[in-house]
Structures are given as C-alpha cells and as structure tokens.
Amino acid sequence: MKPNWMLPDIETLTELPVSQIAMQLHRLKRYGGAIDFSVLQHSLLVYRLARSDDPVTLLWALLHDVGECWIGDALKPAKQIAGHAWSDLEQHYDKHVQRLAGITVSLAVAQRVRDADQRACEIEMMYWNAYPFAIQNEPLRKAALAQEIDWINSVDLFLKEIK
After folding, report:
1. Most distant CA pair in the chain: distance in Å?
2. 141 exposure class (CB count in 10 Å sphere: 0-12, 13-18, 19+)
C-alpha cells in the first residue's frame, strides 16, 4: 500500500491532484538539491518568463515539469547519458499531464515554454545565491517559506480558474 503522500500512477489519474503536485514540486529541489530552489519556484519563474496572454501557454509553463513528481529532477549529464530513454520517459508524463489538464500543446507553445525554461535556468545559475531561500537569517527564511505556501495556493487557484 502506498503512503497517502505518494502520488498514484499517472496513468490511473482522472484529474490533476493540484495541491499534492504543488507541494511535491515545492519539496523537490533543483540541480540535484545543490541549491535551495524548488522545482515549483522554477515553474513559476518559467510562467513569468513565458509572457503570454494565451492560457494554454501559461498553463503549460506552470505544468511543464509536473512529470518530475514521478521521475525527479534529473541533472543534464544524466539526461544526456540516458538519451532517448529519458526523453521518452519525459514525453510519457507530459502526454498524461496534458491529458489531465485538458490541453493540447502546439509546437509553438512548446517552443515558447522551452525558451522561457532555458532563460529560467540561466537566471537560476547566475542569481540563485541572491534568492531569499539562501538567506541564513531564520526570521527572513520563515517569511520566505510563508511566501512559498502562498505560491502553492496561488498555483492551485490559477488552475481552478482555468478549468
């Protein structure tokens, strides 16, 4: 029996468990945990960088890494070694996430989100130390964590609005 915090197999889902996904992406750290920056924060950065009025683009910007709830945030060298096997795995989860979100991601939307994702990675590499979560001051860190919970709730509300 799976613990209640573990997501069911994506193939069995009939809707996205948004709050559970947001919490899991919040707990999953980027770059193999080398920095205290979550996949959820990354997704929100991609959402901001996608700069679009198109709800499908914005939704895919938020959801583009949801598959990592099942497969983790792999580092680029591991993805390169795994090659097509890794990209096939990502595509499998992307297909199911899109099905559950009720969207079809066109090539243009996919490219716009990939471009925003690449820019987000560049920003993270340059500025992650300046991010509030790197602050060692405990009161400031607690305030940043409270903001993170607000972001999780915002993602939940945004997804409910779109549906």
Report:
1. 45
2. middle
Beta carbons of 60 and 66 less than 8 angstroms apart: no
Q: How far apart are CA 78 and CA 83, in angstroms?
A: 8
- What CA–CA distance (Å, rounded) separates 66 from 94? 8
Which residue(s) pair with 38 in the sheet?
A: 29
Structure-token pair, residue 41? 């924060």
Q: What is the pLDDT of residues 64-98, one digit of tens each?
A: 999 999 999 888 889 999 999 999 999 999 999 99
pLDDT attached to residue 135: 47
> Which tokens is 109 given?
């939307």
Supply the pTM of this predicted model: 0.78
Q: Which CATH architecture has domain 17-162?
A: Orthogonal Bundle (1.10)
Torsion sign (Cα): 6, 92, 71, 151: negative
Q: Which amino acid is at 23?
A: M
Are 62 and 155 a contacting pair, CB within 8 Å? yes
